[in-house]
Amino acid sequence: MSEDIKDYIIIGPFIIIIFALYLYSTKDYSGLVWNLFWYSVSIFVSILIVKELNKYTLLENIIPNQRVKSIFLFIIVALPIFAYAYGKIHSHDILNGRNCFYVDVSIFRNKEMFQDQKNLKYLGLEGEYLFFMSEDNTKYYITKFQEIPIVELHKLKSKN
User: Which residue, 14, 15, 19, 21, is CA-closest to 35?
Assistant: First the structure.
């Protein structure tokens, strides 16, 4: 059997599984199927890139063993791809109100700004700024860390 046919036999079912996960996950962006889709895509793309990189004499002088070189390349290639997949999954969790932290708006000095809000989703801290989002995902708030005496993060009961 030629090398190209072996590649299609190995890659073909993987593509079908990823496509099926994608079709199923578009109905509901939450849960296990959405996560499996993005992690499967990460693995698949990493394998394809490593397979192509192994055709070249890349790192042959440094790492003569082909298996060790393949594992090393997979780790180097997969890390940023998995980081993207994790970010994609986590951002959907925050947008859907799952697996995110909330703050009560009473902690802010300018409470008048949040008359229509009871809680805000906590997005993170970067430098001296805190980032928040409204519960309905329509407004973003950025404030200096010094503007808030204390940040108490809590989880709300799941809507599902």
Answer: 21
